[in-house]
Design brief:
heterodimer, A: mainly alpha, Serine Threonine Protein Phosphatase 5, Tetratricopeptide repeat, two-stranded antiparallel sheet, 43% helix, 7% strand, globular, B: 1024 residues, mainly beta, 22-stranded antiparallel β-barrel, 5-stranded mixed β-sheet, 8% helix
């Protein structure tokens, strides 16, 4: 018995000390940066990560009701109204927004999430084994293109921003100073796109991946902006821009949709006129948030319990369209009435609402919009070409005129003849307003050209000094958004903020 | 023990010599509960003749004659003298001494006599702990111990409270104290049936907590549960039962129907003023019979005036039952308990049910081996109706549902804000409570098994395997007809499963050595391993054809919305030692050390060493003090030491690439994202604490006092700090060791026995604690950190020199008057808009505008006993604190979207320009609402915590029935609340949501709370 006791005690004490490696962490839910990466599927997943935050371009605004990043770029134009106070509309209507206002934080956050995911892809795809160089080159081209796109948004909205090109590994790396916008173009946006341009990506991609058409469309836009008022990069970039848009038009295999409503038919996603879109799917479900966002507020016309009426055009903007323009006719780009969801009555709205993202299937049933959100389509590229070539060549060439007329023809407008350079440019700008309105393009056009079309006088006002229909006046301050307070609080190296904030 | 042995021997010897004397017999019981007291010494006064009672409290003794006087004495009880007289039977009931120094106190890995303690340890016994009906131990602790601050932040049934020992020593790693239940470390004691708790010790200073090293810096709560009783008497059976009714204690006034219609119409009339385009504005739908025939009569008067408070907060009846059997033989002891709790909340459809079974066993196998263990099975079911903070949830809709709609229309269909176009459209709260809920099921097995070897007379070895197996299944459903919640999804159901397993292996040697008559040494040496695993899965389905299936069959939903799973593990490995040295019971020394390793930290920082020392001097034991007979006890003690904290999530030192999904080509595709930055240098948070205390007992224990001063400096604070979004990390935060914080304060515990006679006694207790918290240092040049939780911008700031829990926001001065139109215009505002302080450059001025933690707290309680009657009360004081009524955002600043607080009747008008509330207007022109001084209110309060009246039936009744104890009592909790706070209750935190949510900074943020009820209770205690 006594022996047993000693054996037991000794055994237990010894047992207590016999564990090794007890404190090692072996995570199962994520991949360590030092892990071995192998196989095309892994590389593809890294590349896919670059796409993830494109949906951030239509991201809900926390703290708001009916607020979405989309709203900001429309509210700013002075050509949009809102049914909702909780979108912060009044601040933008009166141009009294600041660094804590809605949207400036969410835009920044999601654009950098996009940059981060692209950096992640660019950093790890080369390390994945068992994938051919050709495949890797094209995947890297996708990530480069998207990183350029995210930075393109950042510099247009915020000007100088931190230039993050790696996945950071410590806090010290994160708290960067700002890099001037021109340097971001020169060292990231343009080189990234040129790298992508050298790949063998196909001209079109019906799944929604980055295609050569997308690469060159973005590059055309980037060069045009780079040459424009914000950067004044040099006149030669108009030619670089025109070269890319022409290639898209000539080689891309894209064609204008015959009907405007073809754009709101989910069957046409990633094809036809569409060059590059943010992907949504009702079946995943990952529905497009714009459909309910732009329905007239509480009109009772849809299966959505939230019909926000978050953004809709001012009557002055609608009135500025030329007579007979099909785009302002009922249920083309806009609508003013619709049948009641439960009943046959027609609801007449108190204002004109946007029909561009009206997924009729989702409205009728299910409340899940299957539409993509378009970033580049052929009509846009036609107009990019017309504007760039007009500048590059000192006047409109025959193609430029033809492309503008193709857009006019679809709207039921008579063709234009050759115009002087300045007049042609204004016609192109105007067509951009009419064709691409409420596609988050107009604000960038305004700050790129430093001109604003005055819907009341019909004149092209200078950006600074333009008075909106809400009696607010654009100033220098409006050229760049403030960096969000939450970001400058965490990283004071970003201060001072943009002028006026 | 030795003493008793000597008595026994002496008695036996004497017995031989006194054969021919008087034989006296009887039974000694506890005066409180009439339970038998074994081992009571009975001595014939003035002689060495004596005996002790047996396990049933019985004794026989021979005395020389009937002039003899018997002295009954027992450790911890007041001695009693009884003249023998003519009687040969003497039954005696001994009274427990209060605050006796001979009490044994549980400390980590052992027990110690209270008089031998060198640290700050507070003890609570079962009857103090369970003086009111509460579902768990954290709620039971409120106001009981100085320096233990308990916030009951939600009154939802089954909700646990937040417990903090000596302030916030940590920024946002877990600030809960470490619970140790019968030696099982880190289990959630709140899941236990609190009636199973026999006693509870709170270890507060470093000398006491350091034995738990790594995890002790937020204090340690040792829970000792009820066990069997050795002896061969009949088992003791006891029953505790109570039934209570919860009623709404306070009201928050909202607009009635007529007021709502008036404000609504005024708001649209005012819209033109705020419309930059100067448009005229009409309501989307006119509030009249023509537009809304179901809601207005032919005269355009509202048909309904629904009081949503009344519809939702209804009196609710709860009851609980507890049955305990304790028994044993000389060599073994066992206990068995059964518990049932059925708690119904004030909010309709919210409830909590718990069934508990507990079994303990201790058995001496032979002279050198004792084995034993215990097991608790607990099954809990909780129905939660109030979901995420900020959502259109039940408490929010009580305030925001408009009074002009009924609960249901005459045809039985649900009514709601959605029926009036233009309103935000939240369903009515009764509708939500019925059709949107989560049922949290918990199944828990917890306990330990031990082997205790008595190796030699002085040396023991104990090996103890503790475990906690916890399964949770949370079933959520939200109905197909709830607009804005789940109507678009056509119903949503989800199931979340957790399987948590924890085990520990604790092995230690204890050496108790009486070196000589004066010196005593004890030593402890041990090793411990702990491992925790969690596996989690979640599935969410939408698009149901009807409400029939709910969560029961997720397959019935045609949209499989989300599926996730995860698992993780953390481990600890520790070595610990303690030496105590005692000279004459006057000079006491303790040295403790623990070397702890945790898997959570960086490769090179896994281990930390946590030493402490403590010393005490029992001054009253000194000879020169003996002449002060009125001074029963005077002790001073001091301790200093280090303890640690590792309560952060696992894998936070590692950089992470995180899998996700993104839509391409109409389907989800796998993606990989930069998940978390990692911090390989992550290390232990360390608290250095100094404590000094004085304990005194005067006038035969009529005055007892305990005063402690402490200063705890926590370094290398573990903080989940936000990082710049430009990092591109999905998790834009990093766990870091940032700076330090100091908590210092005093704790006072004063107990007086004002009147003490045979039939009447009156005692009072005063508990006071004051804690000063100050951030000493932060990283990056002491830059402010804004840790969230955000509510329309920052709400909290961490700033050097300020305390943790500082509210941060704008300063509202009032509203702009018409005379100030020009000034208002500089901000793009108009008369009638809120007026704030701005910086010189016109940017908003932000500053610290309040504190979430009080300057001091206190409890005043008193007990009066007269014969069988007892009356007691507890009044709790919490002073120097703010509560942020953030609900004012949606109920004062959003007219025409929902109902408003009645305070908007005092809004700005040209005739009422001196007001804090902006002019009402259509929601379209609502301004930014800011976290400001108008929301951050005085949150100080005085609460009538508990009032109890009880009656214990006399012994005569008991003898007839065989019942040993019967007490019936009535009590009321939250009888009154004195406060300036305008919400339901200033003790609140509505940001607590979900499993494992970080709630470090959400204390006293109120965005529609579950109101605290007044509880009327009837109870009975019964013993056989």
């Amino acid at each position: 018995m006594k022996t047993l006791k000693h054996i037991l005690v000794a055994a237990l004490i010894l047992l207590s000390f016999s564990c090794k490696k007890f404190l090692e962490e072996k995570p199962t839910g994520f991949i360590s940066p030092s892990a071995d990466l192998a196989g095309e599927k892994v590389a593809r997943a890294f590349a896919n990560g670059s796409y993830q935050n494109l949906q951030g371009l239509l991201n809900g605004q926390s703290g708001s009701y009916g607020g979405n990043t989309y709203n900001l770029l429309e509210f700013m134009t002075g050509k949009a109204n809102s049914d909702l106070g909780q979108t912060g509309f009044v601040n933008f209507q009166n141009l009294i927004y600041n660094n804590t206002s809605f949207y400036v934080d969410t835009w920044w956050q999601h654009l950098y999430l996009g940059v981060g995911a692209c950096n992640n892809a660019l950093q790890y795809i080369p390390k994945v084994s068992g994938v051919s160089d050709d495949v890797k080159t094209n995947m890297l081209a996708e990530a480069h293109t998207l990183r350029a796109l995210f930075y393109f948004y950042l510099v247009r909205m915020y000007g100088a921003v931190p230039m993050v090109t790696n996945v950071p590994t410590s806090v010290d790396e994160i708290n960067m100073h700002r890099t001037p916008a021109k340097a971001i173009y020169d060292s990231i946006i343009i080189p990234d796109l040129l790298t992508a341009e050298a790949s063998t990506l196909p001209w079109q991609d019906n799944n929604g991946y980055v295609s050569m058409g997308a690469v060159k469309s973005i590059l055309a836009d980037v060069y045009l902006t780079y040459a424009g008022a914000a950067i004044n990069g040099g006149n030669q970039y108009y030619a670089e821009s025109a070269k890319r848009s022409k290639e898209v038009i000539d080689n891309g295999g894209y064609s204008l949709f015959p009907r405007y409503t073809d754009m709101i038919n989910p069957a046409n996603k990633n094809r036809g006129e569409f060059i590059f879109q943010v992907q949504y799917s009702a079946s995943v479900p990952a529905p497009n948030p714009l459909t309910p966002l732009l329905l007239p507020n509480y009109a009772g016309i849809s299966s959505y319990s939230d019909e926000y009426g978050s953004v809709y055009p001012t009557p002055q903007f609608i009135a500025s369209y030329p007579k007979g323009d099909k785009r302002v006719q009922e249920r083309q780009f806009f609508f003013t009435k619709y049948k009641k969801h439960n009943g046959a009555d027609t609801v007449k709205f108190h204002a004109t609402y946007i029909y561009k993202y009206f997924d009729s299937a989702a409205v009728a049933n299910g409340a899940k919009s299957d539409l993509n959100y378009t970033l580049y389509r052929l009509a846009d590229v036609y107009l990019l070409y017309a504007e760039a070539s007009n500048r590059a060549e000192g006047g409109p060439n025959a193609n430029a005129i033809a492309y503008v007329n193709a857009i006019r023809a679809r709207a039921g407008l008579a063709p234009i003849a050759a115009l002087p350079q300045a007049a042609f440019e204004q016609e192109v700008w105007l067509q951009r307003y009419y064709e691409l309105c409420f596609e988050n393009k107009m604000w960038f056009d305004m700050i790129r050209t430093r001109k604003v079309h005055n819907d009341v006088t019909g004149a092209w006002d200078n950006f600074v000094g333009h008075k909106t229909v809400f009696n607010a006046t654009f100033g220098e301050k409006q050229l760049l958004f403030p960096l969000p307070k939450q970001e400058t609080d965490v990283n004071p190296n970003l201060l001072p903020n943009n002028p006026g904030f | 023990m030795k003493q008793r042995l000597i008595y026994v021997i002496v008695c036996m010897l004497l017995a031989v010599n006194t054969m021919a004397q008087l034989r006296i017999s009887g039974r000694v019981t506890d005066a409180k509960d009439a339970s038998p007291l074994p081992n009571v010494t009975i001595q014939v006064k003035g002689t060495s003749t004596g005996t002790i009672t047996d396990v049933d409290g019985k004794y026989t003794l021979s005395v020389p004659d009937n002039n003899a006087v018997l002295v009954f004495s027992y450790t911890g009880y007041t001695p009693q003298e009884v003249p023998v007289g003519a009687q040969t039977t003497h039954d005696v009931a001994l009274e427990l001494k209060t605050n006796v120094l001979t009490d044994v106190v549980v400390v980590g890995y052992g027990t110690v006599k209270k008089s031998d303690l060198t640290g700050a340890v507070s003890t609570i016994k079962a009857e103090q702990l369970m003086d009111k009906p509460v579902p768990n131990v954290s709620q039971a602790l409120q106001g009981k111990i100085p320096g233990v601050d308990v916030n009951i932040n939600s009154s939802a049934p089954g909700q646990t409270a937040k417990v903090r020992v000596r302030g916030i020593g940590s920024i946002n790693s877990n600030i809960d104290p470490l619970y140790v239940v019968d030696g099982v470390i880190g289990v959630d004691a709140n899941q236990l049936n609190p009636s199973d708790i026999a006693s509870l010790e709170v270890l507060k200073d470093a000398s006491s907590t350091a034995i738990f090293g790594a995890r002790g810096s937020n204090g340690v709560i040792l829970v000792t549960t009820k066990r069997g009783i050795r002896g061969d008497g009949a088992p003791r059976i006891s029953y505790e039962g109570n039934v209570n009714v919860s009623t709404l204690a306070r009201h928050v006034k909202t607009l009635n129907s007529d007021q709502f219609v008036k404000v609504y119409n005024e708001a649209f009339a005012n819209a033109t003023k705020f419309d930059p385009a100067g448009g005229t504005w009409a309501p989307p739908v006119a509030l009249n019979h023509a537009s809304l025939p179901l809601l207005f009569d032919a005269n355009d008067k509202p048909l309904y005036n629904t009081n949503w408070e009344k519809e939702v907060y209804k009196p609710a009846v709860s009851h609980s039952h507890y049955l305990l059997m304790q028994g044993g033989s000389e060599k073994s002891a066992y206990s068995l308990s059964l518990g049932y709790l059925n708690q119904n909340g004030l909010m309709i459809e919210s409830w909590f049910k718990r069934y508990s079974v507990r079994l303990t066993m201790d058995n001496d196998v032979n002279k050198w081996l004792t084995v034993g263990g215990n097991i608790s099975f607990i099954s809990g079911k909780q129905r939660v109706v109030s979901d995420a903070n900020g959502a259109l949830n039940v408490p929010r809709m009580v305030a925001e549902e408009v009074p002009i709609v009924p609960v249901k229309y005459p045809d039985g269909t649900w009514a709601g804000n959605n029926d009036i176009a233009g309103l935000e459209g939240g369903p009515n709260p009764v509708h939500i409570a019925q059709n949107r809920y989560t049922i949290n099921n918990t199944l828990l097995a917890m306990g330990d098994a031990y082997l205790l070897f008595h190796i030699t007379k002085d040396l023991d070895f104990k090996t103890d395997i503790g475990y906690n197996l916890n399964g949770q299944k949370n079933n959520f459903y939200s109905g197909i007809d709830l607009p804005h919640l789940s109507q678009d999804q056509s119903g949503e159901a989800s199931i979340t499963n957790f399987t948590n397993t924890y085990w520990q292996s604790e092995n230690y040697l204890t050496w108790n050595k009486q070196i000589n008559a004066r010196q005593k040494l004890t030593a402890l040496l041990g090793i411990s391993f702990q491992q925790y695993n969690q596996e989690q899965s979640y599935a969410d389905a939408q698009n149901f054809t009807s409400d029939f299936f709910q969560w029961h069959n997720l397959g019935a939903g045609s949209v499989r919305n989300d599926i996730t799973s995860s698992d993780y593990k953390w481990t600890m490995n520790s070595y610990f030692a303690r030496v105590t040295y005692n000279i004459d019971g006057k000079y006491l020394f303790t040295a403790t050390g623990r070397y702890d390793g945790s898997s959570k930290f960086g490769e090179d920082n896994k281990y930390g060493f946590f030493p402490s020392i403590g010393a005490a001097w029992n001054i009253s034991e000194e000879d020169f003090m003996k002449r002060y007979a009125w001074l029963n006890n005077l002790k001073v003690r001091a301790s200093y030491g280090l303890s640690g904290n590792q309560e952060i999530p696992q894998y936070r030192s590692l950089a992470q690439i995180q899998p996700d999904n993104t839509v391409v080509g109409g389907a989800n595709q796998a993606s990989l994202l930069p998940g978390y930055i990692g911090n390989s240098g992550l290390k232990w948070e360390r608290s250095l604490q100094f404590d000094a205390g004085v304990e005194a007992a005067l006038f035969d224990g009529r005055i007892n006092m305990n005063v402690d001063y402490y200063r705890r400096t926590t370094k290398d604070l573990l903080l989940q700090a936000p990082i710049a979004w430009s990092s591109g990390m999905v998790d834009a935060s990093i766990y870091q060791n940032v700076g330090s914080v100091r908590n210092s304060g005093i704790e006072v515990n004063l107990h007086t026995e004002n009147i003490k006679t045979k039939n009447f006694s009156w005692s009072t207790d005063f508990i006071f604690a004051s804690n000063k918290n100050e951030i000493l240092k932060l990283n990056q040049g002491n830059a402010d950190i804004f840790p969230g939780p955000n509510f329309l911008g920052q709400t909290n700031v961490l700033r050097v020199g300020a305390p943790i829990g500082s509210f941060y926001g704008m300063t509202r001065l009032g509203t702009y008057s018409e005379d100030e139109a020009a000034e208002a215009a500089t901000q793009g505002l108009k008369p009638g808009d809120r007026k704030y302080i701005y910086n010189k450059d016109g940017t908003p001025y932000y500053s610290i505008i309040g504190r979430a933690y009080p300057k001091w707290t206190g409890t005043f309680s008193s007990t009066i006993k007269y014969k069988g009657w007892d009356f007691s009360f507890d009044i709790r004081f919490v002073q120097g604190v703010n509560t942020a009524a953030t609900f004012k955002h949606s109920t004062e600043d959003r007219q025409t979207l929902a109902n408003s607080l009645a305070t908007v009747l005092n809004a700005w008008t040209p005739q009422n320009q001196n007001t804090m509330i902006a002019q009402v207007r259509s929601y379209k022109f609502t301004q930014d609402s800011h976290f400001d001084t108008w929301w951050v209110e005085d949150g100080s309060y005085i609460r009538g915590q508990n009032f109890t009246l009880g009656y214990t039936l006399p012994a005569s009744f008991n003898q007839r029935t065989g019942i040993t104890k019967l007490r019936i009592y009535a009590s009321v909790q939250n009888l009154f609340l004195i406060t300036n706070y305008t919400g339901y209750d200033p003790e609140v935190d509505t940001f607590v949501s979900g499993y494992g949510a970080n709630t470090g900074f959400s204390q006293n943020l109120d965005f529609f709370s579950y109101p605290r009820p007044r509880v009327w209770n009837l109870g009975v205690s019964l013993g056989f």
